[in-house]
Design goal:
By secondary structure, this protein is an alpha+beta fold. The chain is built from 11 helices and 7 strands. It binds flavin-adenine dinucleotide.
Length: 394
């Protein structure tokens, strides 16, 4: 039996995130985009609201509902917050992308050690470092190395484009323990901020998601304790690569939800503009064409949301969801570019109002949804490999 109604906790999480998006994100969205800076007051408000506020209550209620729904709760919130501002939503304090590999690959002791400090009421972030210059899609070609010397792992290498990389208290970094092993040599390591040999390099200036921090990280003879290797759950050779890919299966629906949130914001703003700001004397047949286009967009938004929900629902039940995660990410990533571009085009005849400035910002923000967590081409490869397992797709 399929049920599309949201449970009490799911509805509460979504409503709360929407309220946060309206009160804390939209009002500072354009300014943060312009300056590429986020005020400290935003971080503290988010800390208070998400770690102590109603979101926490929603999670407690979710536990009472006795159904595992972390992924569904997360995508419901992500859509609302991206509706507010996707760049700001990536900067909310918390372990962020570091959490999935720690939860899936860490021992209970490692989970407590690395995630416990996030509950202390202070500002903490986490980050995930997979991508290297020239090695984003082809994770198996990773060149950052980890060598065991006595009781320590020694890391050497270079990562880039790492979200929250410069402010993270810890970074889950993927490195190879033996390049000859290809993907089977890859392992996840937890590197705390301030470890000697761990250096933050350049912060990227970007076209979109400008307020989101994207950093270069360098490891030069960076020594971490032996037990910072996350491989407690599975000792098989493929565990490290599976951790990397498993992380993407959990995070792609979240990225899909962010894309749906921006697309929905652009759709609503464009509809409002047509209703309220369309210049006087605008030809009625052209208005009808725009309305038809917006009606189609509405259908596509619903489709994208359902694809995201399905992938997250499967993740909560530990049903293998690589194909579904890629489908939702590819579809929502394409849709957000289409909807924001249409918004900019449709509203072009108007004054330089706030709604037009927001549409232009969302148009710039949209592009990265075609790139991070795997480009559209890579999503198609993942989908094709699962649809046609008998064909050798490189
Ligand atoms: C704002 C932002 C935030 C990011 N945050 C993070 C983060 O927190 N952590 C992290 O690890 N990474 C992060 N990334 C990196 C992102 O995941 C990579 O940029 C992405 O995976 C693409 O990798 P690449 O840039 O090396 O491109 P490449 O892999 O070099 O790809 C270049 C082009 O070649 C195509 N291509 C590559 N291989 C194939 C193939 N086999 N078949 C067909 N086409 C192919 C790609 O589709 C693309 O069009 C972030 C990137 C951005 C822009």
């Amino acid at each position: 039996m399929i049920d599309f109604t949201l449970s009490k906790s799911q509805g509460a999480a979504r409503d709360y995130a929407h309220q946060v998006a309206m009160e804390e994100m939209r009002p500072i969205s354009l300014e943060c985009d312009r300056t590429e800076k986020i005020p400290d007051s935003f971080f503290w408000n988010m800390q208070r609201r998400f770690w102590a506020g109603a979101a926490g209550q929603a999670r407690m209620q979710a536990q009472e509902e006795e159904e595992k729904q972390d992924n569904v709760l997360s995508i419901l919130s992500q859509e609302e917050m991206a509706w507010g501002d996707a760049a700001l939503s990536t900067a909310i304090p918390g372990p962020g992308l570091a959490a999935p590999p720690i939860l899936s690959q860490g021992t209970p002791e490692q989970q407590m050690k690395f995630l416990g400090p996030y509950m202390d009421g202070q500002l903490h972030w986490g980050a995930l470092a997979l991508t290297e210059p020239g090695i984003g899609s082809d994770v198996a070609g990773m060149s950052t190395t980890a060598v065991l010397e006595g009781d320590e792992w020694v890391l050497n290498g270079h990562k880039h484009y790492i979200t929250n990389g410069a402010r993270a208290d810890l970074v889950v970094t993927f490195a190879t323990i033996d390049k000859n092993l290809g993907r089977e040599g890859i392992r996840p390591f937890v590197v705390p901020q301030g470890t000697p040999g761990f250096v933050v390099g350049r912060i990227e200036e970007k076209m979109g998601l400008r307020a989101s921090q994207t950093a270069e990280l360098i490891f030069e003879n960076c020594r971490i304790p032996k037990d910072h290797l996350l491989s407690g759950r599975e000792s098989s050779k493929k565990a490290g690569f599976k951790a990397a890919m498993g992380t993407l299966d959990a995070t792609r629906p979240m990225v899909g939800a962010l894309a749906v949130g921006i697309a929905r914001a652009a759709y609503e703003t464009t509809c409002q503009w047509v209703q309220q700001e369309l210049p006087k004397g605008f030809p009625s047949h052209k208005r009808r064409e725009i309305e038809q286009e917006l009606e189609e967009t509405r259908q596509e938004l619903e489709m994208a949301r359902l694809l995201v929900w399905r992938a997250a629902w499967m993740a909560d039940r530990r049903i293998p969801n690589s194909k579904e995660a890629s489908i939702c990410k590819a579809y929502a990533g394409g849709l957000v570019m289409k909807v924001t571009a249409a918004g900019v085009r449709i509203t072009a005849p108007g004054e330089n109002s706030e709604s037009r400035q927001l549409l232009q910002k969302w148009f710039r923000d949209a592009k990265v949804f075609d790139i991070f967590e795997g480009t559209a081409q890579i999503q198609r490869l993942v989908i094709a490999r699962r649809l046609f397992p008998e064909v050798d797709i490189p």
